């Protein structure tokens, strides 16, 4: 076993990275039929395991959970979650040999161990599925030749997979078939049926590759989706406290602010989010975000390069081998930040006030989304996939911060995403130190008002609007959002 991606020729690497086709809704007319009546066994009942299983059962499929012996004997959370929701739970020996489809929904760190344990028990010609291809792409796991290997990767946290399904919608999903393991040619039909069962087809499905999924997923989660939201939360909160803003107000503005401003993003992209500001505030947010883009661009590019070249995965696997020392230390450190420890006050903040008093947060979101999108597309990842991993998923992660701050975000995302988030945060905070020294409450904590008495320069406003609207993330976003007709409001 070794890094599978790194064994490919440059031509194959580029071709795999570029595999991404937005599927037409007519391609899902067969619904869940390819999996109807099949025995589906999920290994692991955590963030994705439980929520995907609930959706798939509601879609008429036969779901049960195989858990390791200790989880059953000790009645761990996974056992309680599965059994209290009325699912059949059993050991690997009891359930895996009966399965037509095994969904490996355990943490990435465990995949080699889990797959090596489960594979000998799987029946001839069964299918093994992943929701993230790390094990195949970065670790080079080789799967028995008779088994089909597919991926159905929801582009969002497990909690939102369930919430969006209950709202009658779904989350964009990337599907793939591992080309080395499709002996019966049934992989795509099964992956499509699985995406329908989780509700993904209602939000948009990309037919992609294991490689494109891994490289884009890692990049999104480390930078804009989790890393920058963590850095931004800590820096904006600390600045408000330094400048004398009430701590409870500051805590609330950040905790619920990301969710509110990114709701604008979800509906109408960066253009709509920025349009929610007054014209002077929009110009200010644009200027701040341009400066942020210049400062952070090298960091975003470094993350992309480290992901593509395998340095990120090698570093994280070294931490796995070191009993997660870095991950656990960073997790404990995050719990001690002032933002995390300061409860939000019950002061009323209107939806508009989150924008007006959070100009810097809006600037950070614009800078982060555009930088992540640019770094991904420059590396050969297709724009639709880069859009899901930057703009579309940001509001879904912001929802988790609204629930219980950074603790909740880092609990519901995968351990892989959490590790990458801290890695980015640790590099980004010092990078923004000089920039933050110049920041005052006019752009975070209080309402921005241009005080030069000259009003708005029309020519500048036209220039700013054009720059925002013409960014490629806005172009692909317009197309993709048009297919999300059933999207439901949250805020
Ligand atoms: N978190 C998310 O929202 C997303 C995750 N993904 C991907 O989905 C997959 C699952 O991630 P996620 O849902 O975060 O995982 P979780 O950390 O939530 O999964 C925990 C589950 O895995 C089980 N488990 C842990 N260690 C082992 C082991 N050694 N052997 C068997 N079972 C084990 C746990 O059971 P026990 O009680 O036995 O400990 C528990 O049921 C990953 O590949 C991830 O990258 C993809 C998109 C988003
Ligand atoms: C953003 C993090 C994620 O990739 C996800 C929820 O999509 C993860 O690994 O948890
Ligand atoms: Mg993801
Ligand atoms: Mg991920």
From TrEMBL:
This protein's UniProt keywords: Amino-acid biosynthesis, Branched-chain amino acid biosynthesis, Magnesium, Metal-binding, NADP, Oxidoreductase
Keyword NADP set for record: yes
EC number, as in UniProt: 1.1.1.86
SUPFAM superfamilies, per database record: 6-phosphogluconate dehydrogenase C-terminal domain-like, NAD(P)-binding Rossmann-fold domains
Residues of the active site: 132
Any one GO molecular-function label of the UniProt entry: ketol-acid reductoisomerase activity
Domain KARI N-terminal Rossmann: 18-208
Known catalytic reactions: (2R)-2,3-dihydroxy-3-methylbutanoate + NADP(+) = (2S)-2-acetolactate + NADPH + H(+); (2R,3R)-2,3-dihydroxy-3-methylpentanoate + NADP(+) = (S)-2-ethyl-2-hydroxy-3-oxobutanoate + NADPH + H(+)
GO BP terms in the entry: isoleucine biosynthetic process; L-valine biosynthetic process
Residues that hold Mg(2+) 2 according to the record: 217, 389, 393
Binding site for NADP(+): 45-48, 68, 76, 78, 108-110, 158
Superkingdom classification of source: Bacteria
Magnesium recorded as keyword: yes
Residue stretches making up the KARI C-terminal knotted domain: 209-353, 354-487
Top-level enzyme category: oxidoreductase
Pfam family, one: KARI_C
Pathway(s) where this gene product acts: Amino-acid biosynthesis; L-isoleucine biosynthesis; L-isoleucine from 2-oxobutanoate: step 2/4; Amino-acid biosynthesis; L-valine biosynthesis; L-valine from pyruvate: step 2/4
Binding site for substrate: 278, 414
Cellular component terms (Gene Ontology): cytosol
Binding site for Mg(2+) 1: 217, 221
Cofactor comment: Binds 2 magnesium ions per subunit.
InterPro entries linked: 6-PGluconate_DH-like_C_sf, 6PGD_dom2, KARI, KARI_C, KARI_N, NAD(P)-bd_dom_sf
Cofactor: Mg(2+)
Primary role: Involved in the biosynthesis of branched-chain amino acids (BCAA). Catalyzes an alkyl-migration followed by a ketol-acid reduction of (S)-2-acetolactate (S2AL) to yield (R)-2,3-dihydroxy-isovalerate. In the isomerase reaction, S2AL is rearranged via a Mg-dependent methyl migration to produce 3-hydroxy-3-methyl-2-ketobutyrate (HMKB). In the reductase reaction, this 2-ketoacid undergoes a metal-dependent reduction by NADPH to yield (R)-2,3-dihydroxy-isovalerate.
The family this protein is said to belong to: Belongs to the ketol-acid reductoisomerase family.
Protein known as: Ketol-acid reductoisomerase (NADP(+))
Source organism per UniProt: Hwangdonia lutea
Gene: ilvC
């Amino acid at each position: 076993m070794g890094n599978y991606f790194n064994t490919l020729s440059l031509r194959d690497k580029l071709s795999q990275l570029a595999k991404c086709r937005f599927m037409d809704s007519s391609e899902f007319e067969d619904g869940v039929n390819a999996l109807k009546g099949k025995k589906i066994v999920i290994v692991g009942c955590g963030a994705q395991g439980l929520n995907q299983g609930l959706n798939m059962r509601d879609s008429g499929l036969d779901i049960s959970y195989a858990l390791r012996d200790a989880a059953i004997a000790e009645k761990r959370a996974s056992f309680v979650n599965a059994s209290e929701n009325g699912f059949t739970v059993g050991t690997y020996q009891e359930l895996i040999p009966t399965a037509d489809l095994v969904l490996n929904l355990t943490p990435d760190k465990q995949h080699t161990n889990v797959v090596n344990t489960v594979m000998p028990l799987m029946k001839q010609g069964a299918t093994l599925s992943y929701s993230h291809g790390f094990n195949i792409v970065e670790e080079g796991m080789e799967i028995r030749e008779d088994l089909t290997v597919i991926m159905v990767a929801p582009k969002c946290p497990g909690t939102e997979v369930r919430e969006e399904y209950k709202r009658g919608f779904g989350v964009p999903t990337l599907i793939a078939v591992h080309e080395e393991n499709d002996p019966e040619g049934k992989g795509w039909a099964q992956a499509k049926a699985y995406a329908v069962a989780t509700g993904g087809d209602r939000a948009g499905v990309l037919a992609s590759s294991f490689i494109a999924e891994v490289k884009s997923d890692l990049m999104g989660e480390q930078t804009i989706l989790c890393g920058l939201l963590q850095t931004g939360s800590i820096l904006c909160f600390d600045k408000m406290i330094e400048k004398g803003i009430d701590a409870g107000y500051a805590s609330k503005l950040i905790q619920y602010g990301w969710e509110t401003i990114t709701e604008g993003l979800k509906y109408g992209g960066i253009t709509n989010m920025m349009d929610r500001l007054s014209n002077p505030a929009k110009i200010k947010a644009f200027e701040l975000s341009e400066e942020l883009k210049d400062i952070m661009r090298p960091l975003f590019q470094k993350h992309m390069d480290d992901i593509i070249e395998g340095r990120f995965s090698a570093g994280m696997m070294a931490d796995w081998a070191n009993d997660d020392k870095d991950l656990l230390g960073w997790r404990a450190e995050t719990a001690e930040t002032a933002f995390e420890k300061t409860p939000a006050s019950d002061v009323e903040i209107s939806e508009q006030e989150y924008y007006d008093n959070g100009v810097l947060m809006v600037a950070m979101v614009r800078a982060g989304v555009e930088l992540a999108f640019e770094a991904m597309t420059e590396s050969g990842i297709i724009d639709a996939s880069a859009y899901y991993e930057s703009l579309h998923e940001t509001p879904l992660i912001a929802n988790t911060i609204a629930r219980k701050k950074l603790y909740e975000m880092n609990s519901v995302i995968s351990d892989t995403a959490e590790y990458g988030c801290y890695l980015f945060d640790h590099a980004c905070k010092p990078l923004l130190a000089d920039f933050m020294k110049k920041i005052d409450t006019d752009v975070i904590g209080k309402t921005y008002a241009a005080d030069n008495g000259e009003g708005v320069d029309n020519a500048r406003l036209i220039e700013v609007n054009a720059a925002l609207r013409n960014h490629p993330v806005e172009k692909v976003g317009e197309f993709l959002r048009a297919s999300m007709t059933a999207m439901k409001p949250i805020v």
